[in-house]
Amino acid sequence: MKHLFAVITLLGLIFQASALDQSDSGNYAAVHRDGHFTDFTFFVTHNAGQWNVEQRQPDGTWASATCSNNCMLQKSHASDLARFFSTNELNETHPSCVHNNAFAFCRQDSILRPGEKEYSLVALMMMERPIQIQLKRLDSGWKDPQGRMHPDSESRKAQNGFGGWLLVTSDDDWEAKWKTEPAATPHISMATSITKGKPVYALTFFSNPKLNEYGDADISCDIDLRKPDGSASFQQTDATCFKGTLKGQPNYLYLSAPVIKFIGEQNDPYGEWKISITLKDNVGHTNLPLKTSFILQ
């Protein structure tokens, strides 16, 4: 009888341990039935005991889905879980959810495969029965200071965990701003237009490169600066962007070696100058083509 009581107690502890917690915070994307990630993206946070879900809008802004007392997320109980999931799902997983009248955010821990878990958004409103939308956590990519994932753009993107960012700035003190703590992101302003005689600097940042068997990164880059008429002003192929041991965690932000300084001279044409830099992670075999521009006026 003591052994049976111990087993029951252990199962109870396992079930309690499956409750949603801070580790479930993060960025998620809805997954299409064919397996690809959709643009239906969410940011889930847990602060002071309260869960909050924000959805990214088409214009890139974020809107809260838990905006007032009527839509605050509450812990889901056994009767709620029985409504959200089928009997088979309840027999095979330990689900844990928070919900309001419109939806539930859930994690399902596999019973048969310990450590395996799935996330879902369960639509509840205006439907005869709840509909589950599979979610996948977005672990790599550029994030804002609050931790929300940035969508890729021509100048900033991520692929296979490797991130690149091309920034044009007129800050003459950009180097002093850059020399901060490795885990910090300095505030360097972005320049979109300049006048002749005023310098601008094209800075290329990278994050989370793959490391070789010695723990070193190897990143090269192709550089292309184009005049307003499309002709080449400067080109370089396979320049060394970084090679060696990173001074910090791989997911910190690092500045690549080539810094392009441009000063519009008297004979330079007015108009849009375009900069293209392709970051090449030679260990991870990932290329990131980055583009930006500035107006000489």
Write a concise synopsis of the structure shown.
The protein has 297 residues and is mainly β. It has helices spanning 2-17, 78-84, 87-92, 174-178; strands spanning 26-31, 37-47, 50-56, 62-64, 74-75, 93-99, 103-110, 117-123, 131-137, 156-159, 162-169, 193-194, 199-207, 217-226, 232-244, 253-255, 260-263, 271-281, 286-296.
What does this protein look like?
With 297 residues, this protein is mainly beta. The protein folds into 2 domains: 18-137, no CATH class; 156-296, Immunoglobulin-like (Sandwich). 11% of the residues lie in helices and 45% in strands. The chain contains 4 helices and 19 strands. The protein has helices at residues 2-17, 78-84, 87-92, 174-178; strands at 26-31, 37-47, 50-56, 62-64, 74-75, 93-99, 103-110, 117-123, 131-137, 156-159, 162-169, 193-194, 199-207, 217-226, 232-244, 253-255, 260-263, 271-281, 286-296. A 9-stranded antiparallel beta sheet has the order 4-3-2-1-9-8-7-6-5. The longest helix is centred in the first third of the chain and has 16 residues, at 2-17. The protein is elongated.
* CATH architectural designation of the largest domain: Sandwich
Lateral arrangement of strands in the main beta sheet? 4-3-2-1-9-8-7-6-5
Helical fraction:
10-25%
Question: What's the overall geometry?
Answer: elongated
Low-confidence stretches: 1-17
